[in-house]
Write a structure and sequence with these properties.
Shape of chain B: elongated
Number of helices of chain A: 9
Shape of chain A: globular
Radius of gyration of chain B: 22 Å
Distance between the termini of chain A: 45 Å
Oligomer: heterodimer
Helix content of chain A: 55-70%
Number of strands of chain B: 0
Strand content of chain B: under 5%
Largest sheet of chain A: none
Largest sheet of chain B: none
Radius of gyration of chain A: 17 Å
Structural class of chain A: mainly alpha
């Protein structure tokens, strides 16, 4: 059986830094998708290497008891995105770094059906904290416990945010 | 946990998150950036005079090796 991520990261800290590359291989497609969903494919291409460098530098803080590193890597990717957004000018002058998600690009990935646009508008209107929690579960298929690792908040907080987000979107999601 | 969303019909929400898989060259380029950091750390932790080990490095890594203080 393959060593879990926690073991590999621990090994990478004990004289075998190259063991970290195997962790990266396991999660690179998922982390790229995480970036691409939120910032577009080109930005994901550009930022993926930065995620690995930051993760490698920060691996001393990884809890080796966590067998799977993906939520931790998503958390680092999220920080890289924040830095990416904060470095970009905000043409509207109203959106902070955390709300600068490229929703127009999301719409462009799909057809222009009214329901899609309505849903995107509703997602945009959600508080960022609630939207982040919802999309980690819906897009990245994380559990609330895993989403809590990404967001750096207690699991109960994630559950509350999910509840509020789902309540706000339920009428749209149930629409046919 | 996913039932929390799926029970309310999350097909459209998931469709919003659908993206193309990355090109292999993109993944490889990102790993190359990581390998540079890995190589630098391996060199920094090796005793002076010990043979180099690890992944066969390309010219870029060789450049790092030569520049590494104490290598």
């Amino acid at each position: 059986m393959d060593a879990d991520d926690g073991l590999l990261i621990e090994r990478s800290l004990r004289g075998r830094p190259d063991a970290f590359v195997e962790v990266v291989r396991r999660h690179e497609a998922a982390v790229h998708a995480f970036l691409a969903r939120r910032a577009g494919r080109q930005a994901a291409d550009d930022l993926l290497g930065e995620v690995w460098l930051r993760a490698f530098a920060a691996r001393g803080g990884y809890d080796p008891a966590r067998a799977g590193a993906r939520p931790w890597l998503y958390g680092i990717a999220r920080n890289v995105l924040r830095a990416h957004w904060s470095a970009r000018p905000d043409p509207a002058g109203v959106a902070g770094p955390e709300s600068a998600d490229p929703w127009d690009e999301v719409v462009d990935r799909l057809d222009s059906a009214a329901q899609v646009r309505t849903l995107v508008s509703a997602l945009r209107a959600l508080p960022v904290t609630e939207r982040d929690a919802l999309l980690l579960v819906a897009w990245e298929q994380l559990t609330p416990a895993e989403a809590a690792v990404v967001l750096g908040v207690p699991q109960g907080t994630v559950r509350s945010r999910l509840h509020r987000a789902r309540s706000a979107l339920r009428p749209l999601l149930e629409e046919k | 946990m996913t039932e929390d969303v799926t029970e309310h019909g999350d097909g459209l929400l998931r469709a919003l998150g659908r993206v193309e898989p990355p090109r292999p060259a993109v993944l490889e380029a990102a790993r190359e950036a990581l390998w540079s950091a890995v190589a630098a750390e391996m060199l920094a932790t090796q005793p002076p005079g010990s043979p180099r080990r690890g992944r066969a490095a390309g010219p870029e890594h060789e450049h790092h090796h030569r520049d590494e203080p104490g290598s």
